[in-house]
Design goal:
The protein has 247 residues and is α+β, with helices and mostly antiparallel strands. It contains 7 helices and 10 strands. It has 2 domains: 152 residues, 2-Layer Sandwich (Alpha-Beta Plaits); 52 residues, no CATH class.
Amino acid sequence: MFDSSYPVAERPSCTATSVARFAELVKKIGTSASPAVRKRKNAARKKLKCVIDEQRRYAKQANLRAVALTLTFNCDADFSTKHVSRFLDRMRKSFKDVESCLTYAWVLERAGKLHYHLIVWLPRNMALEHSKLANWWPWGSTWVEACKSVKAWGRYISKFDCVGKLPKGARLFGCGGLDPDGKAAVSRSALPQWLQEVLPRRHRARRIIGEGWVDLSTGQLHHSPYVWTPWGILLATANQRAHPRIA
């Protein structure tokens, strides 16, 4: 028989405040980036920063100036991954008499409509006409302005806050016009920090899953100094028994 004198836990009351807090928690969980998305965003930010830094170095040598551009699609149905390449090809052909190659970086975003943010490096005596931009980009609207602060514009376009809202298979960003030193620096920036410290300058490496990183110039195989353990990532030379187990 049930003893009515035994204390029974009361069911928590459902108030408007508790419902609002629960809804806010669900929203945060639903909109928070997954570890894979965060990793992709951080890697993209790191690489794009290196790209812009190297382009800026090259621009000083070639006496180029930075121009900020935004290319917006009228609607999602107009989107194609080939359109930004066609735009750059048309721009490149119009500058065929320029000695330096077209140097640029672009980022795909969505804030209502899909759009590209670009930084383009041009000779100081050359300007972009709005009429030409409209012909080169017939899929929507364009915006152009002199890039007074490369650092600020680079920081603005490298937010990568819309990764989950982009069309399937679309790239986050692209670049072109890097000189050999720039290409080597960008390739190197994507490597683990420990590998950057041991890999000779201008050498490139490729990962072999389960083996390590191979130097493409010498064939030397580099192994990570870190290992996975029950206690986390540790140096391979560390005494793992000295670390207590995590219950």
